[in-house]
Specification:
191 residues; mainly alpha; globular; binds fe (ii) ion
């Protein structure tokens, strides 16, 4: 089994695990989406696709394994990635690149990104939120217990925040879906 396949199995297994408070949906509706979009962006801006794929798979790993690490999951995630990749004899310089992507996947995307690979992962993380509006609606209505309009507004604000974090390449990739989602969410208030 190659390294990427091994990591895919490892992350998906942790998503199926009892300790994962997000449920298996974090694999199907978040990680898979981040990987797909990060690879598309990597092709567009000439980033290393292998680094981008590994970092995307592992970017939320620490939170999935142990939610008590959520606040610092970018830091713990980078440490976990190092342990896993060292065991797989992955080259040291490439491990550093993966760690850099994981450490900087949160927060403002336009600044403080050291590498093209880090830009891809951070953008794809925000794109995944926009692309998976159904997950956010589920969270708003079923987990937060919000009413119809409150929930729609909460999701609308949430994806607006993700949109504002995107670089130009990221915006081009998701613009149509973003506009459609906002149109649907604001439908009631417009008529
Ligand atoms: Fe994250
Ligand atoms: Fe994420």
């Amino acid at each position: 089994m190659d390294i990427i396949e091994f990591i895919k199995h490892e992350v998906e297994n942790k998503c199926l695990g009892e300790n994962n408070v997000f449920g298996y949906g974090i694999w199907t509706h978040h990680i898979v989406s981040v990987v797909k979009n990060a690879k598309t962006l990597a092709e567009k801006i000439g980033a290393d696709i292998e680094i981008v794929e590994i970092a995307s798979l592992l970017h939320d790993y620490a939170s999935i394994k142990d939610y008590s690490k959520h606040d610092e999951h970018h830091i713990y995630g980078a440490k976990e990635a190092e342990v896993i990749l060292k065991k797989l004899n992955y080259p040291k310089d490439k491990i550093e690149k993966v760690k850099d992507c994981i450490i900087s996947h949160r927060g403002s995307i336009q600044v403080h990104k050291k590498s093209k690979e880090a830009v891809c992962v951070a953008n794809a993380d925000a794109i995944a939120h926009i692309e998976n509006v159904t997950s956010l609606l589920y969270f708003a209505y079923c987990k937060k217990g919000l009413g119809i309009d409150e929930g729609a507004e909460w999701v609308s604000n949430k994806i607006k925040k993700s949109w504002d974090k995107l670089s130009n390449e990221g915006k081009i990739l998701i613009r149509d879906k973003y506009n459609s989602a906002q149109e649907m969410l604001n439908f009631a208030s417009k008529i």
